[in-house]
Task: inverse folding
């Protein structure tokens, strides 16, 4: 799975923080690209600056530096929704803490903070911050509310969603219609990644998914049921019923086959 699972709000749920090596290699590629652009800018500055006075040359130099360190990274990350050349090569994407695509504001914050932690300190501050942060965030990510997510890799084994013990009695007697495939998948991915989401976004997404799933369930669970428990109970009960249905079908087919096998030869032969 290359791009993860997107909810209706464009939130990428099937993500994990990118590995340290992937983040660092992607950053090195990006910095090399920006350095090449910076050198090209200096060459252009030397050509144009020859016809300018001292103040004009200084202003042009500031413009080149700002373009390379702030404007270009912000534009690229905004237009590609968090994917620069290095990140694209390493299967990494910058996403919001809730898994959603970054905006121009967050890309700009990352770039502005990056001037200090990447350019002015030679990347030392960013390296230390990403090593000590649980999600590998550099300071720009902490301020912007973003992180580097892995969006490419081997598919993980899907584990059944467990049934909350206190909702078994309700789920067994509830009328639970089949959920649309997209909704069921979004719920499954949300439950699997809930602990990685920002607390506020986790609550908002849980409530939104609960409101959608409730349209397919009657009666609703007891008042006060936690949204994540409700969602887990619905998925677990639907899976149990589907397995029961498949088991009954297999038994019927086995009985039919045995019955046909006992009939006299030729009776059940369509020829």
Result:
């Amino acid at each position: 799975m290359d791009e993860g699972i997107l909810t209706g709000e464009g939130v990428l749920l099937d993500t994990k923080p990118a590995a340290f090596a992937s983040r660092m290699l992607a950053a090195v590629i990006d910095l090399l690209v920006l350095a090449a652009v910076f050198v090209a800018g200096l060459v252009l500055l030397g050509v144009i600056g020859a016809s300018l006075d001292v103040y004009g040359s200084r202003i042009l130099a500031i413009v080149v530096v700002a373009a390379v360190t702030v404007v270009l990274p912000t534009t690229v990350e905004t237009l590609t929704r968090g994917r620069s050349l290095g990140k694209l090569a390493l299967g990494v994407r910058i996403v919001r803490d809730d898994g959603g695509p970054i905006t121009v504001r967050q890309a700009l914050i990352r770039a502005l903070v990056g001037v200090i932690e990447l350019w002015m300190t030679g990347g030392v501050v960013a390296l230390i911050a990403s090593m000590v942060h649980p999600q590998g965030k550099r300071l720009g990510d902490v301020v912007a509310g973003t992180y580097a997510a892995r969006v490419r890799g081997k598919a993980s084994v899907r584990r059944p969603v467990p049934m909350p013990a206190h909702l078994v009695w309700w789920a067994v007697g509830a009328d639970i219609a089949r959920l649309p495939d997209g909704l069921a998948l979004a719920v499954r991915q949300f439950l699997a990644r809930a602990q990685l989401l920002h607390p506020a976004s986790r609550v908002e997404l849980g409530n939104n998914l609960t409101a959608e799933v409730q349209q397919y369930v009657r009666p609703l669970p007891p008042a006060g049921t936690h949204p994540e428990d409700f969602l887990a109970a619905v998925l677990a009960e639907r899976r149990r019923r589907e397995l029961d249905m498949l088991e009954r079908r297999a038994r019927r087919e086995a009985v039919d086959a045995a019955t046909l096998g006992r009939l006299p030869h030729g009776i059940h032969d369509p020829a």
About this structure: The longest strand covers residues 92-96. The chain has ten helices and five strands. The radius of gyration is 28 Å.
